Amino acid sequence: MVKLGVNIDHVATVRQARKTDEPDPVWAAVEAELGGADGITFHLREDRRHINDRDARVLKETVAAKLNMEMSIAAGIVRIAGELKPDQCTLVPEKREELTTEGGLNVRKFARRIKRVVSDLHNKGITLSAFIEPDVDQIRASADCGFDAVELWTGGYAHAKTPRAVQREINRLDRGVETGIECGLEVHGGHGLTYRNVERIAAIPGFGEFNIGHSIVARATLVGMRVAVEQMKDLLFQYSPVELM
Ligand code: PXP
Fold first, then answer.
1. Is there an atom of ligand 1 within 6 Å of 209 CB?
2. What pairing do the DSSP bridges indicate for beta strands 3-7 and 209-212?
3. Which of 44, 50, 111, 190 has the fewest Cβ atoms within 10 Å of its own Cβ atom?
4. 172 within ligand 1 shell (Cβ under 6 A)
């Protein structure tokens, strides 16, 4: 069964709206695990707009499931990741002006720098994933850089407006998963996935993990985190292809 990583950043976004100490994203992580999350994902951004250094530290001490840290390749953040030692680091592009991560990392362009970060964090025992567009060249470049996994950007699918555009994006992801597996990578997916649109992505064979944030946190504000995670797990169970042994 495909694994679900719950991104809890936006619990911290609500806290930061009032610069107070609630809601605590660490409590949300505990509730997400109780709802069946296979992993907890957070993004320590350079501007610390939601998750901060204390959250990262306490999450590391608290989370029993897989802990996945999204991060840029900025030297200060790489140093923190190396000290924190989450189970997995997912390298993402980061721009201050964006609302959320937009598109994938250009692994081909920044290969030399990225290779150094991958090797540095591998030496600390951390698994490395690259958040990239479902593009064959970027997937191959990620394998060349030594990544263990790629997380394919599903935003193109989530933002597609017509049935034809949706199908085109599904085909791209389908091909991307195949290429990733051929390259010996684990293949993850994420961005813009919701209770309404996850069905067709979950049905693509070969995905090992989805990272979903905004939609789960949005639902959690109304039904609670534990129930929101249970509902997403149910959908993944319902739509994921049956695995043949
Ligand atoms: N995966 C990555 C690499 C991301 O940067 C994000 C957004 O922080 C997500 C998944 C989750 O996206 P969403 O909040 O749209 O579910």
1. no
2. parallel
3. 111
4. no
Ligand 1 atom, smallest distance to 155 CA: 15
Q: Of 26, 18, 32, whose CA–CA distance to 213 is shortest?
A: 32
Whether 244 is covered by a domain: the verdict is no
Burial of 209: CB neighbours in 10 Å, binned 0-12, 13-18, 19+? buried
Quote the CA–CA distance of 97 and 10 in Å, as a whole number: 17
Provide the CATH number for the domain around residue 176.
Answer: 3.20.20.70
Domain count, the chain: 1
| Beta bridge mates, 92 | none
Q: What SS3 state is found at 100?
A: coil
> Is 89 a member of any domain?
yes
Whether 43 is in the pocket of ligand 1, judged by its Cβ within 6 Å, is yes
Tell me if 226 is assigned to some domain: yes
Task: Give the structural domain span for 219.
Answer: 3-239
Q: Which atom of ligand 1 is nearest to the CA of 211?
A: 10
- Per-residue confidence (pLDDT) for residue 88, from 0 to 100: 98
pTM (predicted TM-score): 0.96
